[in-house]
Amino acid sequence: MGNPQAGSGTVAPAAAQAPRRRSIPLKPFFVAWAVLFALTTAWVFATPPSASPDEPAHIVRAASVVRGELVGTPSPAGHIVTVPRYIAESHAVTCFAFNPTVTANCAYTPSADPWESVEAPTTAGLYNPLYYAVVGLPSLVFHDASGIYAMRILSGLLTTLFAALAFAIVATMRNRRLPLLAFAVAVTPMLLFLGGSVNPSALEATATLAVFCGMLAITLSPDASRLTGRAVVVMAGAVVAVNARGLSPLWVALALVVPLLLLADRDALVALLKRRAVIVLIAVVAAGTIAAGLWTVGTNSLANAIEHPDQALSFPGIGASPLVGFQKVFIGTVGYSQGLVGLFGWLDTPAPDVVLYLWGLAIGAIVVGAVVVLRRRRLLVAWLLVAAFLLCPALVQAAYIHGGGMIWQGRYNLPLFLCLIVGLAALLGDTAFVRAPYAWRRIAVIVAVGAAGAQFWAFESTLRRYAVGSNGSMRTYLFGQSAWTPPGGTWLWLALFAVLLVLAAALLLHVSAWSRSEEDDVEPVDAVPVNAVQPTEETAPAAGLTPAGTGL
Q: Tens digit of pLDDT for each residue in 360-399?
């Protein structure tokens, strides 16, 4: 894993070895963004309004925040705010929630004046307003239920923006083939489903992933010409992520700190911290985190349900010991992980078993491969990622159970899941099988085709559940009169989603298995020995760092 030329003193200065390159390659970024956004948009229309976890509460929250009402009035049903009637009526179209056999054609008649201002409750009344202030904007323009679809589309646009930034940054890394392919595993059906709903969970996850990938690139593939661009992505992702949900600062802290352990020594870290881009990064992230902390502390959003149970929903387990909370979540890791892959609707519509098995197989292969193949510092980082994924949910539940009950859901761990999959793949990026063309291409085809097929099956089965119910007829679903159909019809979205998946698989195979850019043949810029030249702002490879993991 080391660089055989490091320390030789014979390598030419970095500026003479490689031309200045874009911090963020535009083609991979825009292609990834377009494909991911299109896939997410398919979920937007294939999912009935109010058919994602607590979506009515998030819809009402977004519409109230964008109108300047940041909190509202506490009540047993949630915080009472004033919103247009069509927004408030999103609570009325949840007849299918928690009953998979019930279709989505709720007996509901929209009011004659959907734009009239009315009061409505939201259980998200204390959540950080940043996400809602942006996603709620369409509710100022649309005067009927189409505004809800527009809010979903805007949420999907933001979510996929950060996923595409993470992808583009990984594309700049030297050993990028495996981590690029790992996006097929990281981008689960659940991530696309949540990205296509009004819910901050998916944005929190992809923004955290952008932070993590930026830090991985800085440490694994240091490049002075790209440091500023990578720092900007880390800054934007961190500020958005820490203000997404109450626990977000914890995930962002891990995404920032864990990759730094890949630095070879303290001198390299100190040199990195002296760079202007990094100093600005630290200042901006600190400011964003302070703002998030002030909101969380000022509203007491994390502990409000404990201190004011009359103003919150009641969950089972209240009064139990922290050990019980830790044990239940830790032992139930596999069960909770279903919410990372596919647990749709109001967590009442699981993906088909084969989809879950395929994803479990891919995840297991990456984790086992990492802990078996990696050594020393990289192995330590791999174990830290695995430990964070396994222990953080259990510790959070342990801290909350006595006063608030069992509140943990698998989807809450999406940020750490994305970091785990892409991070382990990046650490494994230069292993022998990736360098064997025939073996690697076969693996890439299996992963890409398997992920595309599983994505389609999850999408189709979820759409069928809302159209005819979980026990409904396939014949009626495809060729008859379904009780509910998405805008444009069932066949439109099935066909479009299939085409998009074929395109996504082909593009992923192109960038991860078949393409070969000039950068593959260029000597890494960080091969310059630290003592061989005096690095400058333009030529220093990310503070003159030696390759992460050199000699390990």
A: 999 999 999 999 999 888 999 999 999 999 999 999 999 9
3-state secondary structure 478-497: HHCCCCCCCCCCHHHHHHHH
Compute how many other C-beta atoms are within 10 angstroms of the C-beta atom of residue 446.
11
Q: What letter does residue 545 receive in the DSSP assignment?
A: P
**pLDDT for the residue numbered 307:** 62
Residues 50-65 have a mean pLDDT of: 95
134-139 own/partner pairs: CB under 8 Å, 24+ apart? 134/158, 135/62, 135/198, 136/61, 136/62, 136/63, 136/64, 136/65, 136/66, 136/67, 137/66, 139/62, 139/63, 139/66, 139/83, 139/84, 139/87
Q: Which two tokens stand for residue 331?
A: 């032992």
Write the CB contacts of 266 (distance below 8 Å, at least 6 apart in sequence).
Answer: none
Tell me which amino acid residue 220 is.
L
Q: State pLDDT tens for residues 8-43.
A: 334 344 444 445 566 788 999 999 999 999 999 999
Cα–Cα distance measured from residue 64 to residue 122, given in angstroms and rounded to the nearest whole number: 10
Q: Which residue has the tokens 């699981």?
A: 350
DSSP 81-103: EEEEHHHHGGGG--TTTT-TTS-
